[in-house]
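ok posting inputs for the zinc ion job
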Amino acid sequence: MMKPNKHAALLTAGLLTLGSAHAAGVKADDNSVFRPTGKGWGEIDDTPGAKERADLARLRSRGTGIYYHGGPLMTNAAGVNAYTIWYGNWSGNNATTILTDMLHHIGGSPYFNINTTYYDSASRRVVNAVTLMGTTNDAYSQGSSLSDSGVEAVVSRALSSGALPKDSNGVYFVLTSSDVNETSGFCTQYCGWHTNASLAGTDIKFAFIGNPDRCPSACEAQGTGPNGNAGADGMASVIAHELEEAATDPDLNAWYDNRGFENADKCAWTFGTTSTASNGSLYNMTLGTRQYLIQQNWINAGSGGCRVAY
Ligand SMILES: [Zn+2]
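and the output
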């Protein structure tokens, strides 16, 4: 996800880049089929049968503006598990308190309930529950400049060291301090992303969430957040975005639209009705005792749309 001013331009840039990287020689036209990258834009899917799969997804659609492509969702009856990996140096930053609090209260909320409108081919739905199962710290094991594979290495290390359990029903959040860069496009093409990988024989879902204090104009919705920590307040919205995408499209082959946009991508940087917090900042929901400004999510019911609650 990326703030709107830059989103359109960067979306185009992303398509061109990915078009040449992953689909060399393929030009986008009306018959092009897109699949999600997990970074907020789609890429051309030129694998055999892509057009047929897309047609089938549209045929099965119920007019909600987002389509099911047959892959798994995170539908465990106990809900989705979350793990946090605090990467870099977070000492003296209360982001660890604010975002831990958020992950303790997002499950069961009217906001996360939006994800229960998503289901698999056996009609199993995402459950409105999120449990923060574990947390660990990583003091720059991969340095302060991470590539995508560097982020994966951070997760891999947390699992192999036993700091966190291997959990196919988990989403592992790599949360980087503001001195850490992600070189594939943090602050220029995205503010966070999610994907999956087979790590030690398990399908592990993980997400990168950078501290937007590194680039407030690109990745923070406002200069002062409701919790008085602009970086953490900005990350709260990005975490929510990647969490709901991981739940409904964990392997990038379940729910997305014909542009390759997953549920949260369709509502990125829209917040619905807002209220003013005591410090003058805007918020649109309360989780536990804290206020947050968290982007809307796409509801897969009725004729679809961006919502903060269901
Ligand atoms: Zn996204």
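notes: Residues 4-22 form the longest helix (19 residues). The pocket of zinc ion is lined by residues 1, 40, 241, 245, 262, 264-265 (CB under 6 Å).
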